[in-house]
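Summary for the lay section of the report: proteins are chains of building blocks that fold into shapes. Here we show the chain for Sulfatase and then a coded description of the shape we predicted for it.
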Amino acid sequence: MKIFKSYGIVVLLLFTAACKEAGKKAGEEKKPNIIFIMTDDHTTQALSAYDRRYISTPNLDRIADEGMRFKNCFVTNSICGPSRAVILTGKYSHINGLTDNSKVFDSTRVIYPQLLKKAGYQTAMIGKWHLGSTPIGFDYYSILPNQGQYYQPNFIENGKRITEKGYVTDVVTDKAIGFLEGRDKDKPFLMIYQQKAPHRNWMPAIRHLGMFDDTTFPEPSNLLDDFSHRGRASREQLMRISVDMMEAWDLKLASSQELDALNEAPPAPEFKDTKEGDFEQANDKSTDKARFLEVYNRMTDEEKAAWNKVYDKRVAEYKKLNLKGDDLTRWKYQQYMKDYLACVAAVDENVGRLLDYLEDTGELDNTIIVYTSDQGFFLGEHGYFDKRFMYEESLRTPLLIRYPPKVDAGSVSDALVMNLDFAPTLLDYAGVEVPEDMQGESMKPILDNAGKVPDNWRKATYYHYYEYPSWHMVKRHYGIRTARYKLIHFYNDIDEWELYDLQKDPQEMNNRYHDPEYREVAEQLKEQLKKLQVKYKDTDPAEKQAKQI
Ligand code: SGN
Ligand code: CA
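The coded shape description reads as follows.
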């Protein structure tokens, strides 16, 4: 009897051990690799999965076609550093501390890559970082200091300062593929791959120079917006194509002759390049050529020769046409689009290169691929370039996610999601517990369910922008966006509300805040907005200000 009993125990023990081993293996197999691709200032109007008017982006569209496209992904604060901090921490700017670009991110804060690293992931951060501090939580990093440069870019690579040859979008991709090649194949990986492009000052790769020379882009119908039915904040900014774009820096209206002469002349006035540059000089036209000369001189002689061929033609056309007023604005808009979109073309090609690499090495389908931007951007809507405002083109950011084991090919979601949700989503897929103090929601239920919006999903998103006074002078504001409406409160040196009915007025041309027909809607939205401020622990700055007086 005794013998039988011990035998039984041994069998049972062996069986349990085998089950555990099998379970562990199954669990391990499920840990997906993650590639988080983020570009800088790439707006949905310039991504053909969203909008076919301006450019075709077949490689980015592939992610959408083979995965999910989110139609309503909004940022919580439409500006670079803050958006990055929100994504990494899963917390709003007022909680993670990085309310504007002038601040330095406190890198001792918990960020999702650290949590993945703890859970056994190999982690890498490549490309634009723009948080001031040194990245923590990565096995490997190679970041562009500050805003980065388009040609012969500098990098800080695991603490070492180096300069690479080539065009930034290509170099960042080479580094990404290099990391994948040399990685520890026994571990799942998280690779954050972040491009500088298509950020200002929109310098295309040599191979893309002149690619849109024969194209005339359709103008947004509100290119010449006179702001008459909107608010004071929308008028009082410095981001108009017509008057705020720099001739040399933005429009490349400096001839090779002028640039050569400048290179021989005594040094031009210095443009102080602190973390964000010195914004007082932002609209100082006297430093324009000197600033451009600095980035122009990063090109090799061959690159300069190819560049000059294209842009000398532009300078000649500008002089010949001698346009004024609205005609000049229209012409500037065309030049802006040519350069911005040519930068997007290099992004698309390089994402294609990365996808091909993953396919060739058999890693494509077990990798979650996220494509997004740090915010949207104005491509001439309301006459603007840049972002910052809570208006649609700036608030909305592209979001494409490919992961065939869970996400249906070609699916589209209307869900109101935010960049606040990225960290919880990725942790959720990796089987890592989401810290309770993260403020976003995991989008996994949406992704796993063909984009359907669960009944208990949020009905509104909350926004808060702080960087003022600063570049482009967009006043501080906060607001709420529901599926149909948007209510914004501009505060600080102004106290104005704007209300838009996005169903009737998708271009946000008519502020309805003072329209009696919308009084009730405005009241309801205000209540909802208050609740969101409580939920996300944001003190109403206008109330705070009132108390201080
Ligand atoms: C730079 C740009 C601004 C831009 C900010 C923030 N000026 O300062 O136009 O708004 O970056 O952009 S530039 O003349 O130096 O190009 S962000 O993407 O980093 O938030
Ligand atoms: Ca940006």
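Put simply, here is one thing we learned. The mean pLDDT is 93.
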